Amino acid sequence: MILLVSLPIGTPPQTQQMILDTGSQLSWIQCHKKVPRKPPPSSVFDPSLSSSFSVLPCNHPLCKPRIPDFTLPTSCDQNRLCHYSYFYADGTLAEGNLVREKITFSRSQSTPPLILGCAEESRDDKGILGMNLGRLSFASQAKITKFSYCVPTRQVRPGLAPTGSFYLGENPNSGGFQYISLLTFPQSQRMPNLDPMAYTVAMQGIRIGNKKLNIPISAFRPGPSGAGQTMIDSGSEFTYLVDEAYNKVREEVVRLVGPKLKKGYVYGGVSDMCFDGNAVEIGRLIGNMVFEFDKGVEIVVEKERVLADVGGGVHCVGMGRSEMLGAASNIIGNFHQQNTWVEFDLANRRVGLGKADCSRSV
């Protein structure tokens, strides 16, 4: 599942579908290609129709490589424009030019021109709304100090995409939120496997049913190389755990429902806890799954939502091994954020969590 936000971009505004991604920095939109090589994507942005659009020239400071917190490979193209190419963790490639453009919410409300990618080559027909802590993320550039979203439950009826909620600024529901602190990393603490721009939290442990798994707390904290960082990522569907934690989860799942496991099957190359049988019954046998944080704050995944429907009658525990992604961190994906308000309070460096029925419009 991806979290899609429709944003009005340019002057006059053109609506762009963008994937909300708290795990990445650069926002980018799908730009118009004059000669379509394949059928054109459903919602492309045509720069020639916007009076506020401008391109970033090669001599712009951003086009100089290796700015400390902007790891995007940029170069000069033949038109003396600033070209970028970016590989996401899942292998998706996006490339195009860096540009400036406004987000126009209404006649009286718009952002100043923000630096965005204008993607000409990408496999997806949607843009990305980069919302991490980097200085070029949408949140940083637009000076948004707080935002929140509510992930609806997976679709019940085929063809009906569920609708959640997204707030920029104050959330009227925040009175009931519980907060956990964000961990921050000074420049001196930069480590090869650490993403200092991610929303890093101090996870304490995992429970399945009533059993607290025997996972050392160090598995959820960045070690000397940065491995073990735990982050909340709206752009990842499954949750990914380092081997030390994943193996304990799998051990307990095997203890509870081992004979029902789909033998020798690995979904997407990352998850080997999958089943052919009755998902409701298997979920009931596994029980609730709980992610524990400091101050007693928890994300509770009810037994009805422990398994993800991956198609073909197969259901998997919505977790994968980070190592198979080539990552060394724990990533709490949106599958485990269903029916939860997740608020990123940047001014106070904290994340708020609150139970909700996200499928109902608010």
Automatic annotation (TrEMBL):
<keyword id="KW-0325">Glycoprotein</keyword>
<dbReference type="InterPro" id="IPR032799">
    <property type="entry name" value="TAXi_C"/>
</dbReference>
<dbReference type="Pfam" id="PF14541">
    <property type="entry name" value="TAXi_C"/>
</dbReference>
<dbReference type="Pfam" id="PF14543">
    <property type="entry name" value="TAXi_N"/>
</dbReference>
<dbReference type="InterPro" id="IPR001969">
    <property type="entry name" value="Aspartic_peptidase_AS"/>
</dbReference>
<dbReference type="InterPro" id="IPR001461">
    <property type="entry name" value="Aspartic_peptidase_A1"/>
</dbReference>
<feature type="domain" description="Peptidase A1">
    <location>
        <begin position="3"/>
        <end position="354"/>
    </location>
</feature>
<keyword id="KW-0064">Aspartyl protease</keyword>
<dbReference type="InterPro" id="IPR034161">
    <property type="entry name" value="Pepsin-like_plant"/>
</dbReference>
<comment type="similarity">
    <text>Belongs to the peptidase A1 family.</text>
</comment>
<dbReference type="InterPro" id="IPR051708">
    <property type="entry name" value="Plant_Aspart_Prot_A1"/>
</dbReference>
<dbReference type="InterPro" id="IPR033121">
    <property type="entry name" value="PEPTIDASE_A1"/>
</dbReference>
<protein>
    <recommendedName>
        <fullName>Peptidase A1 domain-containing protein</fullName>
    </recommendedName>
</protein>
<keyword id="KW-0645">Protease</keyword>
<dbReference type="InterPro" id="IPR021109">
    <property type="entry name" value="Peptidase_aspartic_dom_sf"/>
</dbReference>
<keyword id="KW-0378">Hydrolase</keyword>
<dbReference type="InterPro" id="IPR032861">
    <property type="entry name" value="TAXi_N"/>
</dbReference>
